């Protein structure tokens, strides 16, 4: 299986090929949405960086997408880690600090509350592209983290995945990671960066994150596809819908006949193909949409 994390700027074909959906009139009618929600049996909530924006975690698009002089997405690559594990670890140390200081917002909480209330009578799955752990901290249980988690590490040799909440994750990263663009390059020797706990291994650790250009974990992808392939309602929350493979999930569900509702502060390339569109910060729109 070779599904890679890519941003196909030049190939939005998947999200524009739904004549059946295009024929439907799009609605922003909240009471109609609530009727659909009430009768739905299997609900997928697909979230992206936008849901955490109100918790103070910047998205990659827009002003928040830079760390020092680097575009954040340029550091989230295997090539960047190979060139400078020190620089990439500083970047992730910074992201871990931001995420650990952040709190789940009203959007995360509304989703978790809905699952707690209806999770026994409906199948509710949260599929997130986010790596900040905020859905889990809000209380979401049936959660698929497509792109990994900032608070997990993976050994570059034996592949062991471990949850690590230490801050800093190693002594050498204390006081590092400042995002200021005037901060000079990174020079932490490799042996001072996080290493595998196994005595027989001791290789360099990396963040357990699916970087741009890498394959998604096969089992994680299978779980997500299974949920998408049977849901009757899909909420697309705070995602630009241009990072694959997540970008194809909601159009796949819509093409199968599932109802798709998008929650975003601005329209995305996929908006015209969805049944409902609710414009605004999802910390405001979701609590309304998911309340009785
Ligand atoms: N919090 C995180 O874990 C985090 C943060 C940045 C990037 N990323 C990663 O970067 C990639 C970026 O893809 P993406 O599509 O998730 O994010 P993105 O940065 O491409 O897009 C964010 C989307 O959220 C919308 N948005 C911003 N604020 C919002 C709000 N308050 N309410 C509703 N919508 C809002 C924007 O209009 C935009 O469409 C993903 O792979 C993700 O793993 C993760
Ligand atoms: Zn190891």
From TrEMBL:
Which residues are the active-site ones? 147
Catalytic reaction(s) noted: N(6)-glutaryl-L-lysyl-[protein] + NAD(+) + H2O = 2''-O-glutaryl-ADP-D-ribose + nicotinamide + L-lysyl-[protein]; N(6)-succinyl-L-lysyl-[protein] + NAD(+) + H2O = 2''-O-succinyl-ADP-D-ribose + nicotinamide + L-lysyl-[protein]; N(6)-malonyl-L-lysyl-[protein] + NAD(+) + H2O = 2''-O-malonyl-ADP-D-ribose + nicotinamide + L-lysyl-[protein]
Pfam families in the cross-refs: SIR2
Cite the SUPFAM superfamilies for this sequence: DHS-like NAD/FAD-binding domain
**Which PROSITE patterns has this protein been placed in?**
SIRTUIN
Keyword presence, Zinc: yes
Listed under GO cellular component are: mitochondrion; nucleus
Which residues are involved in binding NAD(+)? 48-67, 129-132, 238-240, 264-266, 282
Give its localization: Mitochondrion
Task: List, alphabetically, the InterPro entries matched.
Answer: DHS-like_NAD/FAD-binding_dom (IPR029035), NAD-dep_sirtuin_deacylases (IPR050134), Sirtuin (IPR003000), Sirtuin_cat_small_dom_sf (IPR026591), Sirtuin_class_III (IPR027546), Ssirtuin_cat_dom (IPR026590)
How the cofactor is bound: the record states: Binds 1 zinc ion per subunit.
- Spell out the family assignment given in the record's similarity comment: Belongs to the sirtuin family. Class III subfamily.
What task does this protein carry out? NAD-dependent lysine demalonylase, desuccinylase and deglutarylase that specifically removes malonyl, succinyl and glutaryl groups on target proteins. Has weak NAD-dependent protein deacetylase activity; however this activity may not be physiologically relevant in vivo.
**Note on domains (UniProt):** In contrast to class I sirtuins, class III sirtuins have only weak deacetylase activity. Difference in substrate specificity is probably due to a larger hydrophobic pocket with 2 residues (Tyr-92 and Arg-95) that bind to malonylated and succinylated substrates and define the specificity.
This chain's protein is named NAD-dependent protein deacylase
**Which species is the source of this protein?**
Trichoplusia ni (Cabbage looper)
> Source organism lineage?
Eukaryota, Metazoa, Ecdysozoa, Arthropoda, Hexapoda
The gene from which this protein is expressed is LOC113500582
């Amino acid at each position: 299986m070779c599904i890679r994390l890519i941003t196909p700027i030049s190939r939005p074909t998947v999200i524009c090929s739904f004549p059946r959906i295009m024929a439907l009139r799009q609605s922003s009618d909240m009471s109609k949405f609530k009727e659909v929600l009430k009768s739905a049996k299997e609900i997928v909530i697909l979230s992206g960086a936008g849901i955490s924006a109100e918790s103070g975690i910047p998205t990659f698009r827009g002003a928040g997408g830079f760390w020092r002089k680097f575009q954040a997405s340029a550091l989230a690559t295997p090539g960047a880690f190979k060139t400078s594990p020190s620089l990439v670890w500083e970047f992730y140390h910074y992201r871990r600090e931001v995420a650990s200081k952040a709190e789940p917002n009203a959007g995360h909480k509304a989703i978790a509350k809905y699952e707690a209330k209806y999770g026994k009578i409906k199948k509710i799955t949260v599929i997130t592209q986010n790596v900040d752990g905020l859905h889990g901290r809000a209380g979401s249980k049936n959660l698929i983290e497509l792109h990994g988690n900032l608070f997990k590490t993976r050994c570059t040799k034996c592949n062991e995945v471990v949850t690590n909440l230490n801050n800093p994750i190693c002594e050498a990263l204390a006081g590092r990671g400042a995002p200021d663009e005037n901060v000079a390059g990174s020079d932490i020797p490799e042996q001072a960066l996080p290493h595998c706990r196994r005595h027989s291994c001791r290789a360099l650790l990396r963040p357990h994150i699916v970087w741009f250009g890498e394959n998604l974990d096969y089992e994680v992808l299978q779980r997500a596809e299974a949920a998408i392939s049977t849901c009757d309602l899909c909420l697309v929350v705070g995602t630009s819908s241009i990072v694959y493979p997540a970008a194809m999930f909601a159009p796949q569900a819509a093409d199968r006949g599932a109802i798709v509702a998008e929650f975003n502060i601005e329209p995305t390339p996929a908006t015209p193909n969805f049944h409902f569109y609710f414009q605004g910060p999802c910390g405001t729109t979701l609590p309304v949409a998911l309340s009785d």
